[in-house]
């Protein structure tokens, strides 16, 4: 097993996760099998109880792991399925060591950070690196490890020490350290400054780790004299210094690394000179170019409570992007704070209220994502009502589905106090209830989590067609509340259709309004299984409906079945450029595993 460690210096938020993912893409394009590990030095056991304002979205894995959003980047870039153990936290490590101590596994020894914590970290890395994540048998060839935070953080010190020991333990030729640092350009003089990176590398070396490659974040490509200076003071060969300058979208990053021959430097450090295959990123390059040149816009109103932080809905944004690229549309997300749609805002801040409603009414489609708590709920209900009454394409995810059901019960059934027991425990018409197996005393890891199977009760519905006329679908969940099964018949008699249910038939998973062009709500999170080139079926439906192309996608289930059973790809020439027909429109091909395609 070979290991690539990605660390960060100077400031946080430089894009270590994207860099680590892009390195994985590059190595995979060289023919190597790649797995990933993210180390988060915080004391939380996992990301499940953390506010999106604290750490961005909580990404959910097939096994129910609630993990850092960077694991979502790994899965999307590398087309792999990780496990909860691929996210290491200080909380997990200390908990495992304390559990061993309570069992007496240390035989009376004084349990210390060194060697017990550091050994536990190394053993965890070695164990998880051997887990296959790409659907093939046997371990991967390379494990890319990202260390969260910045070099010098107190909480990451045990991990730095462990990784220093680990590099010695696995030996030369099996460990490559890539340090992501900042080379700022001061606006006053316009000069690229190397001192922050010099100090960062000095601190790294002082902790026992020596970088093999420098990945320098800057607004523009590094000048040659700057590279020479960094090489001299950081003791890194000039050819091992790459620039990660600002790009229109993150799909460019693997291409940047390839153009600067980062793969050659990595393979050399890892003693993998036998890998002669040049990285094949033709399809990736074509998709990136298409994303850059799209100009026909599709506007989606995102109605949520965390609109001030886009990372809170990162996977939703990526899923929208994947679908919009597949539909040849430039994605424009209109952020609508749910609370701004409410009557209280109309009284307190009428201009804000007016602006929010103008954004909503000007959108081609409306999306209400998941969330917790009662803030902004009434605004989300107004958004769902507007979409239903005005035939605007609508997708509700998790809480968004529950909101759609509550709105329908209030407006169509006339149950004015219909609500979720999450927001009103005493409501006389509980449309949404707490799940019996949930815990009301413990928050972490007690929800209905991970991949669960949904069976289609109605085969002729839009959702089933989008999934390729499948009889069931496996999607990831994260919720404590569900639609009240005792009210389902009443809701269906009024026109709402619960087209997807769990294996028991009592848990509602997918709801549609048959009389509406596209009004879909799902209890699961389809965004967690959307990849570049393989967009989520329901997001594809939303974008297609917003563009007026839904019938084309639904026609015969052709495009959607290829999406679910194979791989959606960009048709490319050998030089990696997208095929451009004579009419000037870009032409996408959905190709299945046999290489057959259907033009869309």
From TrEMBL:
Reaction catalysis annotation: UTP + L-glutamine + ATP + H2O = CTP + L-glutamate + ADP + phosphate + 2 H(+)
One of the protein's GO biological processes: 'de novo' CTP biosynthetic process
A Pfam match: GATase
Keywords, comma-separated and alphabetical: ATP-binding, Glutamine amidotransferase, Ligase, Nucleotide-binding, Pyrimidine biosynthesis
Domain Glutamine amidotransferase: residue ranges: 310-543
Superkingdom, taxonomy of origin: Eukaryota
Record-level Gene Ontology MF annotations: ATP binding; CTP synthase activity; identical protein binding
EC number, UniProt record: 6.3.4.2
UniProt function note: Catalyzes the ATP-dependent amination of UTP to CTP with either L-glutamine or ammonia as the source of nitrogen.
HAMAP family, A to Z: PyrG (MF_01227)
Protein family per UniProt: Belongs to the CTP synthase family.
Protein name as catalogued: CTP synthase
Species, as recorded: Dipteronia dyeriana
């Amino acid at each position: 097993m070979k290991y690539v460690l990605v660390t960060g210096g100077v400031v946080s938020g430089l894009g270590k996760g994207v860099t680590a993912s892009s390195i994985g893409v590059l190595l995979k394009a060289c023919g190597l099998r790649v797995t990933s590990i993210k180390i988060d030095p915080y004391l939380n056991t996992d990301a499940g109880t953390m506010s999106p304002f604290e750490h961005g979205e909580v990404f959910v894995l097939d096994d129910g792991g609630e993990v850092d959003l960077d694991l979502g980047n790994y899965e999307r870039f590398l087309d792999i399925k990780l496990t909860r153990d691929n996210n290491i936290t200080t909380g997990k490590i200390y908990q495992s060591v304390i559990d061993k101590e309570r069992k007496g596994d240390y035989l009376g020894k004084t349990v210390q950070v060194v060697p017990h914590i550091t050994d536990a970290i190394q053993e965890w890395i070695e164990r998880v690196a051997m887990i296959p994540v790409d659907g093939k048998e046997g371990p991967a060839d390379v494990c890319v490890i990202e260390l969260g935070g910045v070099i010098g953080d107190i909480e990451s010190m045990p991990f730095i020490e462990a990784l220093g020991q680990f590099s010695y333990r696995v030996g030369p030729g099996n460990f490559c350290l890539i340090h992501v640092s900042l080379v700022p350009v001061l606006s006053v003089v316009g000069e690229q400054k190397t001192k922050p990176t010099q100090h960062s590398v000095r601190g790294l070396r002082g902790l026992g780790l020596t970088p093999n490659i420098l990945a320098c974040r800057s607004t523009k490509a590094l000048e040659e004299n700057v590279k020479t200076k960094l090489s001299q003071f950081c003791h890194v060969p000039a050819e091992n210094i790459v620039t990660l300058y600002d790009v229109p979208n993150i799909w460019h990053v693997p291409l940047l690394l390839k153009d600067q021959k980062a793969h050659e430097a990595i393979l050399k450090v890892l003693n993998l000179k036998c890998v002669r295959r040049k990285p094949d990123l033709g399809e990736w390059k074509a998709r990136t170019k298409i994303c850059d040149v799209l100009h026909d816009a599709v506007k989606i109103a995102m109605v949520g409570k965390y609109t001030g932080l886009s990372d809170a809905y990162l996977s939703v944004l990526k899923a929208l992007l994947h679908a919009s690229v597949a539909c040849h549309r430039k994605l424009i997300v209109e952020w609508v704070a749910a609370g701004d749609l409410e009557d209280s805002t109309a009284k307190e801040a009428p201009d804000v209220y007016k602006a929010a409603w103008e954004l909503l009414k000007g959108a081609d489609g409306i999306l209400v994502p998941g969330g917790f708590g009662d803030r902004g709920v009434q605004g989300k209900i107004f958004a769902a009502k507007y979409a239903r009454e005005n035939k605007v394409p609508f997708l509700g995810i998790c809480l968004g589905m529950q909101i759609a059901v509550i709105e329908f019960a209030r407006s169509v059934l006339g149950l004015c106090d219909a609500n979720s027991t999450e927001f009103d425990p005493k409501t006389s018409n509980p449309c949404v209830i707490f799940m019996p197996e949930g815990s009301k005393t413990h928050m972490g890891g007690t929800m209905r989590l991970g991949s669960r199977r949904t069976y289609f009760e109605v085969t002729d519905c839009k959702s089933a067609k989008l999934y390729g006329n499948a009889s069931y679908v496996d999607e990831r969940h994260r919720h404590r509340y569900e639609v009240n099964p005792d009210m389902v018949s009443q809701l269906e008699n009024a026109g709402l259709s619960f087209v997807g249910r769990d294996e028991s038939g009592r848990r509602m998973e997918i709801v549609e309004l048959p009389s509406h062009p596209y009004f879909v709500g799902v209890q699961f999170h389809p965004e967690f299984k959307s990849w570049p080139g393989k967009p989520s079926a329901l997001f594809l439906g939303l974008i297609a409906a917003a563009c007026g192309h839904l019938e084309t996608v639904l026609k015969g289930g052709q495009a959607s079945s290829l999406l679910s059973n194979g791989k959606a790809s960009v048709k490319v020439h050998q030089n990696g450029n997208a095929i451009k027909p004579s009419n000037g429109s870009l032409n996408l091909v959905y190709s299945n595993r046999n290489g057959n395609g259907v033009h869309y």
